[in-house]
Design goal:
Layout: E1 5-10, H1 14-25, E2 31-34, H2 43-46, H3 78-91, E3 98-99, E4 104-110, E5 115-120, E6 125-133, E7 155-158, E8 172-176, H4 180-189, E9 195-199, E10 206-207, H5 216-223, H6 227-242, H7 244-248, H8 255-270, H9 274-280, E11 292-293, E12 306-309, E13 313-316, E14 320-323, E15 328-330, E16 333-336, E17 353-354, H10 361-368, E18 384-386, H11 398-419, E19 424-426, H12 428-441, H13 473-482, E20 488-490
Parallel strand pairs: 1-2, 1-6, 2-3, 4-17, 6-18, 7-16, 8-9, 8-16, 9-12, 10-11
Antiparallel strand pairs: 4-5, 5-6, 13-14, 14-15, 19-20
The structure holds flavin-adenine dinucleotide.
Flavin-adenine dinucleotide (FAD) binds at residues 10-16, 34-37, 42-43, 45, 47, 52, 54-56, 61, 103-104, 134-136, 138-139, 181, 350-351, 387-388, 397-398.
């Protein structure tokens, strides 16, 4: 039986787009991308809240083979990332092979025919020899587990589904959560609302950001031959030093220990009221949790119309938020900056997957802990590859991850083509070896400090594992080009 396509890619975020481009470059262009949204860009399509921008310099947050000289700032706003996604799907001829507005409901491996049967919400079934899961990790908005949150009579919105039809001017607004999205939204809306009440469970370390408009001279320099590459090299070195090297080599490179002092000094400089400052000071070490980068987040708490509430929320009522001290905070708008379901077995992937013998991927991970060979493949799930699987991401720019994982996948598919193989499956031994090496190396990471228990960090899964790859970007890049293809069975 011939499948409808060689490859089906789930998701047209940058992982899906990047995988598609790499498949085309390798001459493996018979693919279909299925995307729930009506446009490409994933994160940058869905998240449009005021103030959204990258916190990795734009020179690094882009494909190495498609470097833009048009970013308006060193940290581009979200709309430019979305435009960049549109540009990439058009320039590389990917758009016509994306089926927008269609959700994958489930995928099952058909062992008799060595292909995936993928169910769509349109009622169709699509078959493909190979399945690339690019459904993202920060994809499914997480609603807070607060009593009565559905009973609020005013406007409720999650940051990941911002309702631009609502004008917040002059309104009494509450925001629940102080994670990375809240850090960007709060300074943006505080000047226009009547009052902003921020409900904080765990404070975030916030650092200044060298967020500058890109000058004409810099833009010109990027257009001269080699200019963009130099800029990227400098930016990559900065990202590498401050993210993967600081996090994964913490015991040998304790640079991050100094960061708590830097963070506290910044807080002292930015926040006038010592009581508010104390509330905003994290009790956990820098690195346990994703920090924020913003030049006006902390100083926003100096405003008269902004209140920081740290008493736990008891419930939400029709008129607002009630805290455990019995106070009722009446508001017109409730903003949920409560993040995403991350690394939950029912959120990665975002749809049920069943492999050999009908085994569920969620169940495999539930019983065996999150694991994937090189962050890409799981034994028992042939012909399936994930761009952002457990232990794939080192913590630098996602684009480095996408390109490394994409190369891994292309190497497998290329060998399958050359051998006429219809079934490609990572061996259990290779997967066990890789997982053991991840666990062996993790002791040097930043996440195992005692105070991380206080961080409420989404880095930790329910087993207390942090499924980030304890490696540098260079190591991950090198592995994707050098892992032994004999770690896979080609049948
Ligand atoms: C607010 C926010 C800010 C961020 N800022 C940064 C940053 O500064 N730097 C950084 O490195 N990373 C950042 N990230 C992480 C960001 O998610 C990644 O950088 C990158 O965009 C992930 O790309 P992706 O394609 O893997 O996933 P996504 O961008 O999440 O794309 C996944 C796509 O799959 C689609 N999809 C999911 N399930 C299905 C299904 N069942 N059927 C059909 N389609 C489906 C979704 O609709 C989505 O379009 C941020 C994330 C968020 C949410």
């Amino acid at each position: 039986m011939q499948p409808d396509h060689d490859t089906l890619i789930v998701g047209a975020g940058f992982s899906g787009i990047g995988s598609a481009i790499l498949l085309d470059k390798a001459g493996l262009g018979d693919y279909l991308i299925v995307e729930a949204g009506d446009g490409p860009g994933g994160t940058w399509y869905w998240n449009t809240y005021p103030g959204i921008a990258v916190d990795i310099p734009s020179f690094s947050y882009q494909f190495s083979f498609e470097q833009s000289a048009d970013w308006s700032r060193t940290y581009a706003p979200g709309r430019e990332l979305r435009a960049y996604a549109e540009h990439c799907v058009d320039k590389y001829g990917v758009r016509s092979r994306i089926r927008f507005g269609t959700k994958v409901l489930g995928a099952a491996f058909d062992e008799a025919h060595d292909l995936w049967r993928v169910q769509l919400d349109s009622g169709d079934e699509v078959t493909a020899r190979f399945l690339i899961n690019a459904s993202g990790v920060l994809t499914i908005p997480k609603l807070p587990d607060i009593d009565g949150v559905d009973s609020f009579a005013g406007i409720t919105m999650h940051t990941a589904r911002w309702d631009h039809g609502q004008d917040l001017t002059g309104k009494r607004v509450a925001i629940v959560g102080t994670g990375a999205s809240a850090v960007q939204v709060i300074p943006e809306i505080a000047p226009i609302v009547a009052s902003l009440t921020v409900f904080q469970r765990t404070p975030i370390w916030c650092f200044p950001k060298a967020d500058l408009p890109i000058s004409r001279t810099a833009r010109w320099a990027m257009r001269v031959p080699g200019g963009k590459s130099v800029q990227r090299l400098v930016s990559q070195a900065y990202v590498e030093l401050t993210f993967p090297l600081a996090a994964h080599y913490f015991t040998v490179n304790p640079m991050a220990r100094k960061m708590s002092d830097v963070g506290k000094a910044y807080l002292r400089k930015q926040v006038d009221d010592p009581v508010v400052r104390a509330k905003l000071t994290p009790r956990y070490a820098v690195g346990c949790k994703r920090p924020g980068f913003h030049n006006t987040y902390l100083s926003t708490f100096n405003r008269d119309n902004v209140a920081l509430v740290t008493d736990p929320i008891e419930k939400v009522t029709g008129s607002g938020v009630v805290t455990t001290d019995g106070r009722s905070h009446d508001v017109d708008v409730l903003i949920l900056a409560t993040g995403f379901k991350v690394m939950d077995t029912d959120s990665v992937p975002t749809y049920p997957v069943s492999g050999v013998g009908g085994q569920s991927l969620a169940r495999f991970w539930d019983e065996n802990r999150l694991q994937a060979y090189e962050g890409v493949s799981v034994p028992g799930f042939p012909n399936m590859f994930t761009v952002f699987g457990p232990y794939g991401y080192v913590g630098s720019s996602y684009f480095a991850l996408i390109e490394a994982q994409g190369h891994h996948i292309v190497r497998c598919l290329d060998r399958a083509r050359r051998r006429g193989a219809t079934r490609v499956e990572v061996t259990r031994e290779a997967n066990d070896r890789f997982f053991a090496s991840m666990l062996r190396k993790r002791h040097r990471q930043i996440f195992w400090q005692d105070s991380c228990k206080l961080a409420n960090s989404y880095y930790f899964d329910k087993n207390g594992d942090v499924p980030l790859r304890p490696a540098s970007t260079v190591e991950a890049y090198w592995s994707s080009r050098r892992f032994p293809l004999d770690d896979y069975m080609f049948v």
